[in-house]
From TrEMBL:
Family named by the database record: In the C-terminal section; belongs to the transposase 35 family.
TM ranges: none
InterPro entries: Cas12f1-like_TNB, Transposase
Protein name: Transposase
One GO term of the biological process aspect: DNA recombination
Keyword annotations: DNA recombination, DNA-binding, Transposition
GO molecular function: DNA binding
Domain Probable transposase IS891/IS1136/IS1341: 156-269
Cas12f1-like TNB domain: residues covered: 284-348
Amino acid sequence: MLSKMSRSVNMVWNFCKQTQKEALKNKSVKLIDDKKSGKKISIPYFFSSSEMDGLVAGSSKELCLHSQTVQAISQEYITRRIQFKTLLRWRGKRTLGWIPFKASAIKIQNRKIFYNKNEFSFCNSRDLPEDAKIKTGSFCQDKSGHWYLNVTFESEKIGIKREDDKEIGIDIGIKTLATCSNGEKIERPNLRKNALAKLRYLKRCQSFAQRKQSKCKKYRELPKAKQERKLHVKVANIRQDYLHKESTKLAKKCSLIVVGDVPCKLMNRNKKLSGISLDSGIEMFKSMLKYKAVRAASTYKEISERDSSRTCSKCSEKLPRIELGVRHWSCEKCGAVHDRDVNAAINILQSYRAGHPIGHDRQTRAKKNSS
């Protein structure tokens, strides 16, 4: 039933895109009032949320969807078009299922959800707070074909109780996921190493079957495809669980979290570092830390980490370039022996407290981008 509904959702989404595409193709314009000059100017005709709602109204019965779902799809399309400032992609038949809804479209009772005169049972990961007020939600499908219920709600009882008021700096690394200024190190999940051998075996089986199918010209789903999808989902779930636990530990015991602005995009372009960066989930870890710090009423900041590894945290002496293979080094001026990552984390925290960037004779990334 949910798969059938998701195809109807794709139809509404594609209708929104096709309608917008035709409006731009006809070179239609819209007149708006310019606040600066006070004159009316013409802009390309992009539909507003209310206009798109009027175009899709009345189609819910034929599509076997709730009317609130149809409105949620059109509003989501307009929101994402404004966000990305371009026409969005088509939703094809291989797109993972997604069915949005509003609070008035569902009713949750005794681990059962009632939606559009249909009843669905689900396994509850945790109960909602007593004062929870559901705002929006959706049914989502993963690569293995499992469906999930997601809801957003308002509550005053939810939050992370902070156990301590430590202030730490964090250096995101390659050898370890993160190194704290107090010497604590968070190891990488290293899931790639364990799953790579099995993934290569599945790919070999598929490539052999693909060559065989091309010879006899009989194409169908490749063998081991289901196992491959399940393996990817399993690895992603393990990674997400690990990052959730580690980020929650940090948010509970810290009132100030200062993280170096490691450029994940540049790391992902590097052949040697891309596998480690994507396997560790660095960007995911940083986003988790950010919103969990807000829940715990803590402060989360990202600052430039330039020269943090080769600047002495004791005397601020800057050394020449240090290769990535050198994990420990000693300062020639004061003689202090440093762990590369711990020293970088201490410098990141000290830099935020002092209010100036590390190696302040150079521009930071943020200043370069703004200029």
